[in-house]
Design goal:
single chain; about 575 residues; alpha+beta; 5-stranded mixed β-sheet; 22 helices; about 65% helix; about 5% strand
Length: about 575
C-alpha cells in the first residue's frame, strides 16, 4: 500500500505538471484564447495542488473529486476577475487577485478533508489538517530543491567525461515540469507516511514561545503611541499594513497557544496570560490600521491596493473583536476562540471570492472615486495619477476617456496638457523649484551665476527637489553643504560646464559633472581624479570647504592621447 501510494502521488504530480506545461505552451503558441488558457491553467494548478494536499488523509480518488470542484471554482473566479482587463493576463500585474485566488484555493482544503470524513466543523481535525498541509508542503518543496540540486550536480559530473544525456533530457521542455511534479508528489506521499515523526505539534509548540516576545513589542508600541503621535501611521500604506501583519501574527500565535483542544493547549501561566493579553489588544491594532488607512483614502482617494488593505483591516477587526470578546466573557474563552476561527475562516474565503467577482470590482470603484474627486475639485490636475488609471484595466480606460472628454472644454487647458503628456502644465512647479534652488546654491566663481542658472534650468524637477534641501542647510563645519564650480571643463563642447558638490550627510559627500547635451537637456557624468580613480567622500568634503572660499584654478590634465579629437585614444593610469 505504501509503495502504491507513493507511485500514485508521484505519477499524479508528474502528469499535472505536464498538463500545466501543455497549457502554458498552448497559450504561448496562440492555440488557446487567453481567458481559456487562464481558466485551464488555474484549474490544472488548483487541481494538482489540492489533490496532493488531500490525497494523504482521504485517498487519491476522493481528493481528485473534491479538488476538481475547487479548481473549477477558482478558475471561474479568476476568469471573472480578468474581465476587468484586456488582455486577460493583466489581472496578474498586481498581487491582489493572485493572493485572493490562493486563499480561495487553499483555505477550503481542511474543510474538504473534514467533509470527506463526515464532520467539516470538527475544529480539532481542521486545526491539525491545516498545519499538516503547511508542513507537508514545506518539507516536500525542500525535497524538490534537493532533487534538482542532485539532478544538476549529476549533469555537471557527467559533462566532465563528455556524457550529455541529462543535459539533453532537460532540454526537452516538458521534462523539468514533470520532474518537479513527480518530486513534489513523492515528497508529499513520504511525509504523510511519516506523520508520526513529521508532526506539526513540535513546530506549533515552538511557535508558542514567540507569543510573549511579540506581545511585549505590541504593548511597547501602544505605550509609546501617545508620546510619539499618530502622524507616522498616515504616511502611506506601509504603517497600516505593518499593523495588520502584527494582527495576523497575533491571531496565529493565539490560535497556536489554544491549540485544537483544551488538553493540547498551553499550560504555562505565562503563555496563557500572554494569549489573553494578545487577544485583548488585537482590536486596537486593527482599528488603528483601519483609521490610518481611512485618513489616507480621505486624502488621496481609493486605489485597488488601499481597498484591498481595507478589506484586510475589516477581517483583522473581525478576528480581534471575536478574540477579545472570548477572553472578556471569562471561562471557556479557548473554546470560543476556536469557534471564532472556524467562522472567520469561512468569512475570509467568502471575502476572497468576492474580491474576484464583479460585486467587488476594486478597479472600477477606485477609478470612479478618482474621477469624482477630480470633478469635485478635491484632486487638482497636477495630482491626477494618470499612470495608475492606465493600470486599472477597462475601468481605468473609461475614466481616462471621460477625462479626455472634459479636456475638450476650453476651461480645462491644464487637464488637456496633462493628458498630452505634460506633467507640469505651464512649468509652474519646475519654475518654483528652480527658483528655490538658485536662491540657496552658491557658485564659484561668484560671477558665474548665468551658467549655473542655465544648467539648473535644464534639470528635471526631481533633481531640483533633491538638491534644494541639501543646499538650504549648512555643512557639519558650518560652511555651505553644496557648491557648483563653473569652468570650461570640456573644451570641445560649447560654453562652460559645472561640477556640483553635495554633502548629503556627515559621512557622504558626492560630486557630479554637469553639462548641456546637444538637445539642451542636462547631462550628468561621474567625476574622476587625474589617475582615473574616484575621489573619496572625505576628499570631496575637503574640496567643498576649500573651493567655497575661493574658486580653484583651471589647469590642463596631465594626460595625452594618440590621434586627434574624439577619435583619439588615451591611456589612463
Amino acid at each position: 500500500m505504501t509503495a502504491a501510494h507513493r507511485w500514485s502521488l508521484t505519477t499524479t504530480g508528474a502528469v499535472v505538471a505536464a498538463l500545466i506545461w501543455a497549457v502554458i505552451e498552448a497559450g504561448d503558441q496562440g492555440l488557446l484564447q487567453d481567458r481559456l488558457a487562464l481558466f485551464l491553467g488555474a484549474l490544472t494548478m488548483t487541481l494538482g495542488a489540492a489533490t496532493l494536499a488531500m490525497a494523504g488523509p482521504i485517498g487519491l480518488i476522493q481528493s481528485l473529486v473534491r479538488a476538481m470542484g475547487l479548481g473549477v471554482m477558482v478558475a471561474t473566479l479568476l476568469v471573472l476577475a480578468s474581465l476587468r482587463f484586456e488582455p486577460a493576463d493583466e489581472v496578474f500585474f498586481t498581487p491582489m487577485a493572485s493572493f485572493a485566488a490562493f486563499l480561495v484555493a487553499s483555505l477550503p482544503l481542511p474543510f474538504l478533508i473534514g467533509q470527506a470524513r463526515g464532520d467539516w466543523r470538527d475544529y480539532g481535525a481542521l486545526f491539525f489538517e491545516s498545519w499538516s498541509i503547511v508542513l507537508r508542503y514545506a518539507a516536500a518543496l525542500a525535497f524538490v530543491g534537493i532533487v534538482w540540486a542532485l539532478v544538476l550536480a549529476s549533469s555537471e559530473v557527467l559533462l566532465i567525461v563528455g556524457i550529455t544525456v541529462i543535459e539533453d533530457l532537460l532540454a526537452v521542455d516538458v521534462l523539468p515540469f514533470a520532474i518537479t511534479g513527480a518530486a513534489l508528489g513523492l515528497g508529499m506521499a513520504v511525509i504523510h507516511e511519516l506523520g508520526d515523526l513529521v508532526s506539526p505539534h513540535l513546530v506549533l509548540r515552538l511557535f508558542r514561545l514567540l507569543l510573549p516576545a511579540v506581545l511585549v513589542v505590541m504593548l511597547v508600541f501602544l505605550a509609546a503611541l501617545p508620546f510619539r503621535g499618530l502622524s507616522g501611521l498616515v504616511s502611506g500604506l506601509s504603517p497600516a499594513l505593518l499593523l495588520l501583519v502584527m494582527v495576523a501574527g497575533g491571531v496565529m500565535l493565539v490560535s497556536v497557544t489554544v491549540d485544537k483542544a483544551d488538553d493540547h493547549a498551553a499550560e504555562s501561566r505565562i503563555l496563557i496570560r500572554s494569549a489573553q493579553g494578545m487577544a485583548l489588544i488585537l482590536p486596537m491594532f486593527a482599528a488603528l490600521a483601519a483609521w490610518a488607512l481611512g485618513l489616507r483614502i480621505a486624502q488621496h482617494g481609493l486605489t485597488p491596493e488601499r481597498l484591498f488593505v481595507l478589506v484586510i483591516a475589516g477581517l483583522g477587526l473581525g478576528y480581534g473583536m471575536i478574540f477579545a470578546a472570548a477572553v472578556l466573557r471569562g471561562s471557556g474563552w479557548r473554546a470560543r476562540i476556536r469557534r471564532g476561527n472556524v467562522a472567520m475562516a469561512l468569512v475570509v474565503i467568502f471575502a476572497s471570492a468576492l474580491w474576484l467577482t464583479p460585486l467587488l470590482n476594486a478597479e472600477r470603484l477606485s477609478a470612479q472615486n478618482q474621477l469624482a474627486r477630480y470633478d469635485a475639485g478635491v484632486t487638482p490636475v497636477a495630482d491626477l495619477d494618470l499612470a495608475a488609471l492606465g493600470r486599472w484595466g477597462r475601468s481605468g480606460a473609461e475614466v481616462l476617456a471621460a477625462l479626455a472628454e472634459r479636456a475638450k472644454d476650453p476651461d480645462q487647458a491644464a487637464l488637456a496638457a496633462r493628458l498630452a503628456g505634460d506633467s507640469d502644465p505651464g512649468g509652474l512647479a519646475s519654475a518654483a523649484a528652480l527658483q528655490a534652488l538658485i536662491s540657496v546654491m552658491p557658485v564659484q566663481p561668484a560671477t558665474a551665476t548665468g551658467t549655473r542658472d542655465t544648467l539648473l534650468a535644464a534639470a528635471y524637477i526631481y533633481q531640483l527637489q533633491d538638491w534644494q534641501p541639501i543646499c538650504a542647510r549648512a555643512s557639519e563645519s558650518g560652511g555651505p553643504a553644496c557648491l557648483m564650480v563653473v569652468a570650461d571643463l570640456l573644451p570641445l563642447f560649447p560654453g562652460e560646464e559645472g561640477m556640483l558638490i553635495l554633502q548629503r550627510d556627515a559621512e557622504y559627500t558626492e560630486v557630479i559633472g554637469l553639462y548641456l547635451g546637444a538637445d539642451g537637456s542636462l547631462v550628468t557624468r561621474p567625476v574622476l581624479r587625474a589617475d582615473g580613480s574616484y575621489p573619496t567622500p572625505e576628499e570631496v568634503a575637503a574640496l567643498l570647504q576649500t573651493w567655497a572660499e575661493a574658486p580653484p584654478p583651471l589647469t590642463q590634465a596631465p594626460i595625452n592621447q594618440l590621434g586627434t579629437g574624439e577619435a583619439g585614444l588615451m591611456l589612463q593610469p
